[in-house]
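My current task is to audit a protein record that another person submitted. What it holds is a sequence and that sequence's fold in token form. Thanks in advance; the entry in question is below.
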Amino acid sequence: MLGWRLMFVILMVIGLAGLVVMALPAVTGLAHSHGAAPPHAAHALLSTRALGLLKGKSGQSAVGGGGASSVASTFLRFLLSPRIAFSLFALYGAFGNALEHTLHLRPMVTALAAVLPALLVERFAVSPLWNLAFRFQGQPSSSLGALLLEEAKAVTPFRNGRGVVAVVRDGRMVQFSARLVERQTPAQVGVGDRLLVEDVDSGRERLTVSVPDPKL
């Protein structure tokens, strides 16, 4: 009995740890950085390509009848979706542990009884919540070059032609280190002064700005 309890706990821990690791990109907004696809999209693409190998050019199964193809496709989707695997591990371990402690069933009966609730909760609760979470994850940021000729505001006084400015990027106010164009280096720039982005150094994430003509 202790062996079964330990197995349920181990599966639950593995599943939860895997889900946490996979969810980190959505929480931190890194899933789309540098144009990368989110994990669930990559898994879906991989599954689709792999499933295509099971079909012939005529659209019929290359591994047997329609029933066998359906079973193979379902099993392949499971293998190629770590999210589903981790989710089922966690749910199966949790339900198995709960059933063993509450109903005190035989180990084999508990192992079988935990399968159905794990599948149902994964299908109708976890999957919709997971998809919803990734739907609202951060969108890819526009290139810094898009800030060229945009308005900026000084958030610190400029000293020797250098300071910090704030610009609107993708609907958010973002701060960058900045320097004045050479011809205006001696100019006095105070907090809140309006500036114009003249050049963008994407590598250093630094802007070159100018003081616009007050007549404009």
